[in-house]
Amino acid sequence: LLLSEKQMSSLAPDAAAQGFLGVAKTAITAIVDQMMADLTPLFEKVFSDSWFSEQAGVGTVIATIGDFFCDLQFWLQEHFFKRLVTQILDRIVYTYIEALLITHKVKMSTKVKEGIAADLEVIAELADPDSGFIRDATLRKRTQVVDDVRELMVVQEPNLAKKFSARYTAILEVHPDASIFCSLPTDHYLP
Length: 191
Hints:
mainly alpha
């Protein structure tokens, strides 16, 4: 035996596992924070003409993320790598929507609507089966909110309140923390 019975009885494997998981979660968050710090300059041009050109924009963001993922996939255990992928995807989606609605206060035009659709297609490249970064269904679930917000921005009469309420409900189903309008009784405005 490597350990005496007294030493064995003093071990707390559950506490050790919890400690390890805590460190792993903190490490994943730190990696995501660093990745976002590296990507922040790219998001300064979001929704500009250069963003929607072929030289810049979400294509550059996704290529950079893909490079990070290739490096990290080798070093991280699969479960923790998947956590990292979903966390960075959630942060990218949040940053994108924040830029759309708050930072740049984008006015919806045909160019922007088409640009968002094109951006979502580029983001979908992360679900490429050859890379194995993320399953297509998981990626669609995580990015659906971008399309829902885009649809909210283009909702027009007739049935404005009903369409808005349906889209907003769809957003809340996927992102319950997106309760920016929780204080508004949206069903009150339905015809």
